[in-house]
Amino acid sequence: MRNPTTQRRSLSARRASLYAIRRSPRVALALALGSIVFAFPSLTNSAVVGSAASSHVSVGLPKSAKADFTYSTSLNGSENLFLQVSSLGPTYSPAEVSQWLADVCNTPTTGSRNLVLQDIVDSNGNLNTSYLDVIVPYLPGGSVSCFNKVFVGTFGPVWTGTGSIYTNGVEDTTFTTSYVNTSIQLANEFVQAYPQVQVNWYLTYEADLNQLYYPTVESAYASMLSSEMSGLSAIDPNAQFLWSPGFLYTYSGYSTNTLGMQGLDSELGQLFSSLKQVGPGLGTLDLQDEIGTTNCWGSGAMTPSDAVGWAHFLQGVSNAPQIDMNTTLFDTNCTTGGLVPITSSTALNTESYYLSQSVALGAAYEMRYWITESGYQLNQAATNPPTVLPATTTSSGTTTTTSGTTTTSGTTTQPVHGHKKH
Predict the structure, then answer these.
(1) Is 331 within a domain?
(2) Whole-number Å distance between alpha carbons of 325 and 286
(3) Positive or negative: CA dihedral 252, 254, 259, 262
(4) Does 308 map to a domain?
(5) H or E element, residue 21
(6) Does residue 202 lie within any of the structural domains?
(7) DSSP code of 363?
(8) What CATH number has the domain bearing residue 36?
(9) pTM for the predicted model, two decimal places
(10) Structural domain tally of the chain?
């Protein structure tokens, strides 16, 4: 995680009662609560490692011993995960990544198994075919085809201007036009390279949704995302869209401000209305819960209750898409700033709470954490390809596979999930 340099930005009069915010000009955001400044490694989900457009940056982390609980199946009967392609090399070989996918596919599931590919580029910004070649067989239309859906995200742009990529950056039309054009170009290259894949699209440019209180920020996001969705729909009119932004204020704190909540409701309603008009519309908003991103922020740390509060709020906004929860499968080490996998019991307890509050579980961040928490090995080379039983559907619609687990050891390089996350 990089230490952010921050720049104070004054709030408008109508937000004078809200928290003061510091903008970072690079990867992280800094949120000032009183005299304490908390650094955001990213929102839960970057084109290249450390991209400013993601809350997922890559860091080296010690891998934990075998998790205290092994997933025999995901709590909600499904396995929906992010996989950040740009940060795989050189730490992990394509053969090892192929084995991860086999491990996921061989773990029993009673529901859907979906995959979100984040940042499908290499360090030079080119299509990362050395890894995509071993990932594609597992995707819908591939030779194994064990995932029900895949959402392909192209890349996360790097903002080098002043302020935040989620405000200053998105309002810079030169910057966003370049992002949209590059995103569509990479999407075209992906479908040309892998025409067999039944593709859907992940909109990589994340957002601090609290900042969409400002009409200029909302308008900038509506214009950028609509342009990107229009270009991607031209490639495949039937492809669906998924987006994974997050909130960087706690719900318990922000929701007490009537003006702020009314402004958010109005502006987000306008955004959702705009996106509803493009192609099939935005189908799913996979809300980053920000738990692992903010666990060192003291009173500013998100709780599962905050995440549920924001999810319920979004569910009530006019023209809202399906609202799912993107569970952070990591915590931040408050001494080093590195990310470490949470225990499986913690993940299951959190997911159980979300489900009990009528919040559906979406793709979680990220596969490397899931592999570690499930007791599999990250550094285990696969046969080519590994043995995988494709998902089969019973008469009742239950999807099942066989499974097996192994212990884990050694050190790993993990992506950073969460916000700007995420």
Answers:
(1) yes
(2) 5
(3) negative
(4) yes
(5) strand 21-23
(6) yes
(7) -
(8) 3.20.20.80
(9) 0.79
(10) 1
Best CA proximity match to 97, nearest among 37, 44, 137: 137
2 within a domain of the structure (yes/no): no
Residue 178, phi-psi category: left (phi > 0), alpha (psi -120 to 50), beta (remainder)? alpha
State the residue range of the domain holding 262: 7-415
Provide the H-helix boundaries in 209-257: 215-235, 251-254
- Mean pLDDT, contiguous 10-residue spans, the chain (422 residues): 26 26 25 25 32 33 31 54 96 95 87 92 96 97 94 96 97 98 98 98 98 98 98 98 97 97 98 98 98 96 98 98 96 95 92 95 95 89 57 37 32 47 40
**Tokens, residue 330:** 């990591």
Burial class (CB in 10 A: 0-12, 13-18, 19+), 235: middle
Sheet of 81-84, strands arranged across: 81-84, 114-118, 149-153, 199-203, 241-243, 282-288, 322-326, 360-361
Q: Which two tokens stand for residue 29?
A: 């955001």
Amino acid at 286: D
Cα 86 vs. chain centroid, distance in angstroms? Answer: 14
CA distance 155 to 204: 6
Angle between helices 173-193 and 215-235 (to 10 degrees): 20
Query: What amino acid occupies position 285?
Result: L
